Amino acid sequence: MNSLDKKEGEFPGSDLQLALHKHSCAEDSPSIDTMKTAVAVMFAVSSLFLAGCYTNHHVTKWEYMQRFGMQSDAELNRLADEGWSIVSFSGEGQPVYILKRPRH
Asked: Residue 86 class from Cβ within 10 Å (0-12 exposed, 13-18 middle, 19+ buried)?
């Protein structure tokens, strides 16, 4: 068959080339279902990750106490050993100490 015998619009080997092209495209790209599954899994994992980041697992509750004047360093050290910390102090008139510690 020479070029004059071909019908208009017909190319030699065009059906074979088209079939090979379709086959190679199918092998190179994943299927739509696979892509949808991958996107769904990525969305689920990222949602769980974000939920874990914003969850507050532990909230410290505090106990407070007022003390009017400290008699000695020994008294202050005893309170510290019991877990108390001074958070505020007012020295006008009689000294007032505000202490806090975590609730048990």
From this structure: middle
**pTM of this structure:** 0.43
Phi, then psi, of 64 in degrees rounded to 5? -115, 155
Q: 101, 84 in Cβ contact below 8 A?
A: yes
Q: What are phi and psi of 90, to 5 degrees?
A: -125, 125
Q: pLDDT digit string (tens) for 52-76? A: 666 666 788 999 999 888 778 899 8
Decide: 101 and 78 in contact? Cβ < 8 Å: no
Give the residue among 67, 76, 55 at the shortest CA–CA distance from 94. 67
Write phi, then psi, for 92 (nearest 5 degrees). -75, 130
